[in-house]
Amino acid sequence: MAVAKALKEKVPLATAQPEVVIDPDREPIVVVDGLHIVYRVYSGGGNKGNAVSALMRIVKRQNRPQMKEVHAVKGVSFVAYRGDAIGVIGTNGSGKSTLLKAIAGLLPAAKGAVYTDGQPSLLGVNAALMRDLTGSRNIILGCLAMGLSPEETKAKYEEIVKFADLKPGFIDYPMSTYSSGMGARLRFAIAAARTHDVLLIDEALATGDAKFKRRSRAKINELRKDAGAVFLVAHNLDVIEETCNRVIWLDDGRIKMDGDPTEVLKAYTDATGK
Ligand SMILES: Nc1ncnc2c1ncn2[C@@H]1O[C@H](COP(=O)(O)OP(=O)(O)OP(=O)(O)O)[C@@H](O)[C@H]1O
């Protein structure tokens, strides 16, 4: 593939967008090149409440709901290198989750592109676990879904249960009986059971208690050693400071600052008063 070749040969990717220059001495893992993400949403078009009026609208081809565009990411470019743990910060609606989803390949680019060397895995608060199944079944399904073999899954099972450290017995209860914190712990424990080429973590640590947060940070540092690159979205700036070697500050869909955590976090807190 041309992109993989470009990444391997460490050459700048030629596109119509602002050119991303890749440091030839480091191994690029994610290249985000002039990325724009636009959501298209239908806004209500007048009398939309009942089936008859909806049918009339179709028949008459009238009064169709209008499509609105939300431009969530506006020309973002950067390169993440092997070993990078990048914190993504910004106020509500600045585009953090959208950027992570785009890197994970879950949203199409309206313009520009994202290239990753390896498979990205998004670990978010809404990561897909089955609420009606027990924690135990979810561990098995989750591991298989991440590409582990049945033998590897078996070998990892106890480690995941231990890391999640749920209340006794809960591992055999349906996940619908879990608190949001318990669900987040199990999701994190499952995702942390394998190494990821590109690991994207969206507020996954927000709901845990202090002890779990500490253990998760240690786990992220461990995963970082084997992962290509780790991205972490968190509103808790302490988590970012302790876990990341680089911070990207997004403001209204654009990169406002990208660099050393201490500098970026200081500028951010000065600007936002947070
Ligand atoms: N599914 C969607 N459909 C339409 N617009 C969306 C959708 N998801 C997000 N947006 C819009 O895109 C913009 C960026 O949202 P995003 O969730 O990426 O921000 P964020 O920085 O992660 O916010 P937060 O800190 O509140 O989680 C916002 O204006 C939001 O309203």
TrEMBL record:
GO CC annotations, alphabetized: membrane
Residue stretches in coiled coil: none
Nucleotide-binding recorded as keyword: yes
Gene3D superfamilies given in the database record: P-loop containing nucleotide triphosphate hydrolases
Domain ABC transporter: 56-271
Pfam families assigned: ABC_tran
PROSITE patterns: ABC_TRANSPORTER_2
Keywords: ATP-binding, Nucleotide-binding, Transport
Family recorded in the similarity comment: Belongs to the ABC transporter superfamily.
Family matches, as PANTHER family: TEICHOIC ACIDS EXPORT ATP-BINDING PROTEIN TAGH
Full protein name: Teichoic acid transport system ATP-binding protein
